[in-house]
Design brief:
The structure is a homodimer. Chain A has about 325 residues and is α/β, with parallel strands linked by helices. Chain A has 13 helices and 12 strands. In chain A, the strands form 2 sheets. Chain A has a 6-stranded parallel beta sheet with strand order 2-1-3-4-5-11, with helices on both faces. The first copy, chain A, has a 6-stranded mixed beta sheet with strand order 7-6-8-9-10-12, with helices on both faces. The longest helix of chain A is centred in the N-terminal third of the chain and has 16 residues. The first copy, chain A, is elongated, with a radius of gyration of 25 Å. The model of chain A has no long low-confidence stretch (mean pLDDT about 90). At the A-B interface, α4, α5, β2, α6 and α11 of A face α4, α5, β2, α6 and α11 of B. Chain A binds a DNA duplex (16 and 16 nucleotides) through α2 and α4. Chains A, B: This is LacI family transcriptional regulator.
DNA sequence: CTGAAAGCGCTTACAG
DNA sequence: CTGAAAGCGCTTACAG
């Protein structure tokens, strides 16, 4: 069986209380005792049981992360940064892939509550569910406005949409088409769309937005778009995977990029940048978002509910490649 | 404060023992009592504390996953599948990004032990460390042989290397160059290399293997390769990211693919396939690997240490695109 | 069918 | 500087 604190105490010739004190560096302990305890711990390969410790302290140092899917480059990188920063701060991460399904999100949330996580970071399109279950559980939402009581951290989607559209206009595009996800989902991408449409109107151009179903095979939709918009000379895709599909469709049709058609994407993940270095895109500061989200969450964990910033939007950056 | 089992008991007018029995569906409880208990739990929004339960049962249903980096498409997808399957089987996943650093792996492993995980799935290049700390902790390695006592699950790397090389030869390539990671790392990619070299020799061709440092900026190395190997008419890259770098370098130099040069990668992740659908590659069965790894791990968790398969190699598949 | 008691492995007032 | 006792929130023999 695994050794426990009593085993250590017996070997060191002290009480379990003393061992605990050594473990926690708490109160006065003579150097000699300390050493004996350390030696005993090493001798029997003792590691404290964090379950027991957490049970007593009512603090687990566990954070739950709910994302749609760690396969997606954006979420994969988000998970990486969040986990790394958590570890740096002494927290551990329970990973949950919700596939954007409400039923899964609910189950995960209940699981996290049962496991006494100190807080939750969530990327979810389903409003309300977090609020409902919450009951004092600190939550921070990433990039999605969830409810009045939940802080959001994201990037400046309106600015991103504006930059993308203006870049295309500045390069002389007249007929710019925007591709976005379904409008019903209250995603942050809606702000990108809004910015696109505002800027287009400002410039006396008619906005044309195509909606593609979520995580569908984009090719089919993109192909239809090409058929229906033969005059398009610029495409602003609301994420890089859609932009990649556009690039592929253009290649298939022998459309010269960027001469006949300019394409800009959104997200600018490391993975996509390394696979498609030519793609012009709007880069989100994933690491910064992660940092901010954790910072706010840990404030809430420490009971500091008062001055939590309700909404934090970090700046985006244009990465200009050869597709524009 | 959070309600506990005593609060539920008081409201339902029964003992904590009975509440626990209802919770665990254990022993005989009258329907009436059951109902009263359920109602009480709902009334005060009670969720059992899994910490306490785990402490008693000496079973957490927690699995640790150590991967280099969830940003990488291969590991991101691996994490997704492993987490999904774990959830399906009632397990939860603690995510650890080791960046392939031995010191981090060691710290993570200790953290996992302290948190009483039931088992660990690890992708690591650093042999030995797991073995050292292990002390009865069930571990399964993915794609990397770690030690005699740790089962490995992976794909058939030799077959993959063979298929890749034969495909290029079959298409008429005479001068095939292979790009791989550093040989010192005992990665499974070494088997891909071995297969490449064996097949080349069999066909009376001279194998030429380039080693690129891990996670470096590949472009520079690839560029040198192009300079040094002007006659190369086929390149077999040991992963898709390297293959993508080759594609980009070829584009930069105006080299016609596949006519002047044919390129095949390795991994075949969803992400890379969706971004570079034209890339020919050897696809690893990530979901199947995940399933097998968990299956074996859970066997070990259940104390079934006897007939654990030492090595499991799942079949790979050629995905033929337009780069060959 | 139900309850009181002991214990999982810790930590922390309290006392000395 | 150190220890005995109580308790974190559960579960499970044991007894009735």
């Amino acid at each position: 069986m695994k050794p426990n604190i009593h085993d250590v105490a017996k070997i060191a010739g002290v009480s379990p209380t003393t061992v605990s004190r050594v473990l926690n560096n708490r109160g006065y302990i003579s150097e000699k005792t300390k050493e004996r305890v350390y030696k005993a711990m090493e001798e029997i390969n003792y590691f404290p049981n964090d379950l027991a410790r957490s049970l007593f302290r009512k603090r687990t140092n566990l954070i739950g992360l709910i994302i749609p899917n760690s396969s997606n480059p954006f979420f994969g990188e988000l998970a990486f940064h969040i986990e790394s920063i958590c570890t740096l701060k002494g927290y551990k991460l329970l990973l949950c892939n919700s596939l954007n399904r409400k039923d899964k999100e609910e189950k995960y949330l209940e699981m996290l509550i049962r496991n006494q996580v100190d807080g939750v970071i969530a990327v979810t399109f389903n409003r309300g569910i977090l609020d409902y279950h919450k009951q004092n559980l600190p939550i921070v939402a990433i990039d999605h406005y969830l409810s009045n009581h939940i802080p959001v951290v994201g990037s400046d989607n309106y600015a991103g949409g504006k930059k993308a559209t203006e870049l295309l206009l500045g390069k002389g595009c007249k007929h710019i088409v925007h591709i976005n996800g379904p409008l019903e989902l209250e995603t942050p991408a809606n702000l990108r769309r809004k910015a696109y449409e505002d800027v287009m109107k400002e410039h006396g151009r008619k906005p044309v937005t195509y909606e593609v179903p979520f995580h569908q095979n984009y090719q089919e939709y993109i192909s239809r778009l090409f058929d229906e918009q033969p005059n398009a000379d610029g495409i602003f895709a609301s994420d890089d995977l859609i932009a990649a599909a556009v690039l592929n469709q253009a290649k298939k049709r022998g459309i010269d990029i960027p001469n006949r058609l300019k394409v800009i994407g959104y997200d600018g993940t490391e993975t996509v940048q390394s696979l498609l270095p030519d793609l012009t895109t709007i880069q989100q500061p994933i690491e910064l978002i992660s940092k901010k989200a954790i910072e706010i969450l840990l404030k809430a964990v420490d009971g500091d509910f008062n001055d939590l910033p309700r909404e934090t939007y970090l700046p985006v950056q244009v990465l200009e490649g050869k597709t524009t």
